[in-house]
Every structure is written in structure tokens, then in C-alpha cells.
Amino acid sequence: MVGTILNTLVVALGGTAGALLGNRLPPRLRAIVMQGVGLVTLVVGMQMALKTGNVLIVLGSVLIGGMLGEWWRLEDRLEALGGWLEARAARFPVLTRGDFTRGFVTASLVFCVGPMAVLGAIQDGLSGDYTLLSIKSVLDGFSSLAFAASMGMGVAFSALTVLVYQGALSLGAGVFQSVLTDAMVTEMTATGGVIILGIGLTLLEIKRIRVTNFLPALALAPVLVALWDRFGPAV
Known about the structure:
By secondary structure, the protein is mainly α. The chain has helices at residues 2-22, 27-49, 55-72, 74-89, 100-112, 115-127, 131-151, 154-157, 159-171, 173-179, 182-203, 216-231.
């Protein structure tokens, strides 16, 4: 759990510093920062998505996962959590400058969707080696700074999501390691890349995509890999 705690603290500090800095930036500078983050997010998502060894698994995961997420209203629930946190922070006006809920939801997704979050947390839980999460912490620190400069303090509160998500993976590390194969991790990574592409499109205001509703796709990808290995055509 050391790596997860480190990651949580870095996101909280980076988000806080970015929010304080952003309040001093003119709107045009904040806009260009957001556009830069959006463009880089697209690149990261594309790199991850292209790792797939079977695009049909990614397609099936995204389609079925998206339908499940809409049915369970995951986007609405995460936004409601962001709104609840914003209401609790309302007594301190400096905390609620900017788009608090948008910052919380967007940063929560970016910091938790990706192979480093999964593999790093499992490695940390099994052996106490938090090297991978240390690298992720550095990346997340700069990202949270950039996000918060445009969207405000909600980004810092996404540290709570990182703590819960990665903490759960670390605590259940033994189970996850025994189940996940290299092929499963690869397709989870590619599926996460598609989701991150959706985040990039939303940040650039090209198209608002209800990205949170696609999160079940991450859990479905390993299942579909197992089914393909069992019943799919021989290659």
C-alpha cells in the first residue's frame, strides 16, 4: 500500500498546487493548457489502444461494458459523488473555484484507467515493490497540476478515488495475479486506451462522451480473452 499512499499524496498536492496556480492564470492561458492536456491525452489513449492483439475483444468489451454502464448509470453516480464532495467543500470558497465536479470525474478516470494503476498496485500488494507506482506518481503529479490549473480543486479530490481503487487492487493482489494472464492485461490496456481517447475528445470539446459508463469494459476484457482462448477460432 506504500505506493498507493504515495500516489494519493502526489495527486492531492499536484491538484492543490495546480488549482492555486490556475486562479492566477488568465482564461486564455487556462484554455490553452486544457487543449494541450486534451491533445496529449489523445496520444496516450491511442498508444494504449494500439497494443491490442485482437480488436474484436476490445470492441466487445467497449460495447457490452458501455451498455452495462448506462444501465447502472455509472456516470451519473460518479458525478453525484463529485457534487456531494463539492457541497461539503462549499464552506471553503477557495476549494470550489472552477468546474469542481468535472475536474474530479475527469482526473479520477485518467489516474485509474491504465496498466500502471493495475500492475503497479498488484506488484505493491504482493511484494511491497512500489517502483511502478512511483513512476506513475511522477506522471500523475504533473498531470494533476495541469488538470487543476484549468478545472480547479476537484482534481485534488480525485486522490480519494486513487486511494480506493489502487488500494483495493493491492489488497486483492494475490487473487488478481493468479487470474490475469499477459494477454488479459494487454487487452485491458487497449480497452483502457479507448476509454482515454474518449476523455481526450471530451476535454477538447469535440464531443462529450459519457466515459465513466464504459468502465465495466475493463473488467469484461479479461473475461472475453478467456472465452476467446476457450471457444475462439484457432489462429
